[in-house]
């Protein structure tokens, strides 16, 4: 299979507002019951998790749950097979001490999850391989990832010509051995347009750390996590928020795309070779919120790590270069947060190296690299 086109990709991980109020991360208790809307009975073992983090729990046999979380604003997912899920915005400032009661309505959709191999023809498996490449990615981490319940996937390349669309009937479970996580991924939508290489996916991941790792293996996993973090979109947005992109290894330049007079469907890139400060990208609004605001495109070079062999392609000769990406803001301004997330998941369009790194390179938003003390 050819390397996935990294020219254009839009990645949506779910709206996630994790605004820690202090470095001590004061813990709060989020508790409640998940119940059947029609009967009022508790739903045993329903899943409750904070999207894009390691904070999650299963309800008990009576549908009751309790989860300790740092102070902040969150998006909570409540999910159970056979029921319509819920997305709930939660602020620990308004946390109800008596707990919450979430009512899920039974799904009218048939649960067609029985594995019937005769119905999965060669085309299904080809589509599965395409989905793996464009969703998990073809990086070293992405290649090592494995679907633990791929039979929940619904792969559709027939309803729209030249487009592969994927949904999941249940939470998709992904093992990522390199980074030491199991991802429970609530896939909302996946779309790959073969003609122009456009990839779009949206969903809500929970990161479950592998607690069975030996000390030696855990040390290796920590190194791989930091490697995945360095140069990522999460790292970049955090450094823009802090105004220290240069110290973190990012070089920012302005990129202009001029219509090609000889071909109205194409454009010509014009790169300003003079780097500029991240402070030019941000401003505070009247409420004191930090907003990302820029026109045209931002050309990003990460100088602390070379592009990977997998990105270049093993058959491509030549010296590996720096990791180069492009950002485009899809709106006039976008609120960003200290942990590297932003208010509107549709707000940033990424191209290049950052776009090439997919779910296989994801880290939870509560991940923090170790700080070395000289």
Automatic annotation (TrEMBL):
Keywords: Carboxypeptidase, Hydrolase, Protease, Signal. Pfam families: CarbopepD_reg_2. One of its GO terms (molecular function) is carboxypeptidase activity. It comes from the Bacteria. Transmembrane segments: none annotated. Residues 1-26 form the signal peptide. This is Carboxypeptidase-like protein.
